[in-house]
Amino acid sequence: MMVVQRLLHLLRRLRAQPLLLQLLFVVALVCWDSSVITFSAAAVDESSMSTNSTSIRALLALRQSISTDPSAFLASWDMAAEPSYCHWSGVHCSTEGSGIVVAILLNSHQLNGTLPPELGLLSNLSYLNVSEKNFHGSVPAELGKLRKLTHLDLSSNGFTGSIPSSLSNCTLIQYLDLRFNSMSGSFPSFITSFASLTYLDMSRNSFRGQRIPSDIGRLSNLQFLQLTNTGVEGALPSSITNCSKLYWLHLGDNSLSGPLSQDWTNLAATIRSLHLRNNFFTGRIPSTLGNCTAMTELKLENNTLIGGIPESLSRVTTLKYLVLFSNRLTGAIPESITNCTALLSMQLGRNDLTGSIPAQIGKLRQLYSFSVSRNANLSGSIPDSIGACTQMELFSTRYTQVGGRLPSSIYNLTNLHALYLTDNAFSESLSEDVGNWTALTTLDLSGNHFHGKIPEALGFLKGLEGLLLQQNRFEGPIPKTWIGLQVSEIDLSHNLLNGSIPPALGDLPLLNSLLLQNNNLSGRIPDTLQALRRLRELNLSHNHLTGEIPKNLSPSESLDLSFNNLSGRIPASVGDLYMIFTIILAENHLSGPIPDTFAAYQRLLVLDLSANNLDGEIPSALGEVPVIQYIDLSYNGLSGSLPASLGGLRRLVFLNVSFNSLRGRIHTGGIFDIVSASAFLGNPGLCGNRAHPGNCIESLDSEGVEGCNRWLPYSEHNRFWRS
């Protein structure tokens, strides 16, 4: 500037000089000016070349560190094919055209590799996003050299190690997303110095034993904070409520403890989503949360909060999700909560609430999920207004004292997917209007006093997957309308049902559990049940069934046909030979020998064939079932000797062969050394166990089996309790 001023001064003085002299001066001035311009341009070019060289070095180092690029996203990162790196995929340069890299955006392209330390050379970088990749290894400390960085997104990768303390130099950061990695170590307390920080998500990392910095409230611009499942512990700093712009606070699945701050007034206008679930918070739910009139989600489940549900929450008319289950809340559900007409889900189960369901629940027209289950002292009935909640998909009062009559309006809930009234106190018959529940997948009415017939309409609910009506007083026949349903579980046990088992039950291709025990069913077991290839569990015990066991009845895990009047032989392939672990056929009229095929039951744990008319010998192959724990063959007509192979069953803890016609010596070793004498009662031909050694001195019979000169004592019970 001083040079220009002096030149202008000389030009004014030349005005008095001859014209030729003036022209010579101008020519000289032009030449001088050109040299200056040329020198300046050269300086700029040299600076630009230096920047370009550094950028190329950093970018090529990044390219080399990436081992997998399945979508060929980085194909353009080639100096020969594309000399201008500003045109490379994911690379963004300054609009000034100087080649300054300001952003690298590589998100969502399934790249695999590491971050090289050369990234620290990009001193003008403000955006770095490598989210949703397969990057691994540690985060390079050289990122701390990126002083202009405002957005750093490393989320959804496999980064390990600690968060570099050098990041404390990046004081301009506004957006920091490190979620879904495997980073550990110290909690980065330096983030509280990031005055411009608006977004912080470090969830699904491991900072176990670490605490949230007490001065977190310094982040006056913070709007989004998520530290879910990071392992942080200790108290939630009260200063958190000083983050007056915070609208999202998710700190669930941690080990935070202590009482919650009772003053949330500073967040009244901003907070929208508050998740503190799955921690160890104590004390009361702050009543000042009722001032947070913009809040849509309040999730405090799985803590140890006490006291009542604050009446003040009824002022939060924007609330959509109220989730407070698994605490120690007491008192009644506030009737005023029905003023929160935007509610979509209200989960209050597993508390100590009393009183009844709010009578005006029908005001919650958008409610689709409601549960008060496991509040043992909650009583009353389901309000008739429930019929207005036409969006309801899940309704649960199980394990409460709610009961009485079902309101007729409940059949208006045509969107209902799951209805759980388990172990309540309902006592009436079901209407055929259950057919209105066309979206129903699960109906659990078990443990009540429902009576009358099971509605035929249930058999037309094409989406039904689980039907649980056990432990009621239903009577009459089982409906026959079961064709083409998707049902996987039917439990009608412990009722007063009679008649035969409908063959149509065999037309349920997805059925894996059929429980009909403890009824008054009669007739034969339908052969159609053999077609149930997915059947895991079949229990028809404690009925009056007759006839033979179908030959190919093959549940894969458990078969119980006990306490019936079944006859004939035990099929050689009863149950799934390779999968079944329980076979109970006790208290029937089965005859013939025990099939040798039991040796093939590799996972069998329980075998109970007691109280039948079985004859023949105990197969020695039974000692080849490797994991069996319980064998009861008592009260049959079995003969021959005890197989010594039973002593080799290392997991066998119960054996009962009493009241048969067995003979010979009771072996030693294994189960024979631990079972009591009562296991052998009623077999006069047996002798010589450890507990009661007898003198087997009679002459050998034709098979060389020693006789016994005495009976085993009858000092113990002659029968065993079976569940």
From TrEMBL:
InterPro entries from the UniProt entry: Leu-rich_rpt (IPR001611), Leu-rich_rpt_typical-subtyp (IPR003591), LRR_dom_sf (IPR032675), LRR_N_plant-typ (IPR013210)
UniProt entry tagged with the keyword Disulfide bond: no
Cited Pfam families: LRR_1, LRR_8, LRRNT_2
The keyword rRNA-binding is assigned to this record: no
Gene Ontology CC: plasma membrane
Domain Leucine-rich repeat-containing N-terminal plant-type: 56-94
Keyword field: Glycoprotein, Leucine-rich repeat, Membrane, Receptor, Repeat, Signal, Transmembrane, Transmembrane helix
An individual GO BP term: post-embryonic development
Coiled-coil parts of chain: none
Membrane topology: Single-pass membrane protein
Subcellular location, record wording: Cell membrane
Main location: membrane
PANTHER family: LEUCINE-RICH REPEAT RECEPTOR-LIKE PROTEIN KINASE FAMILY PROTEIN-RELATED, PLANT INTRACELLULAR RAS-GROUP-RELATED LRR PROTEIN 3
Annotated protein name in UniProt: Leucine-rich repeat-containing N-terminal plant-type domain-containing protein
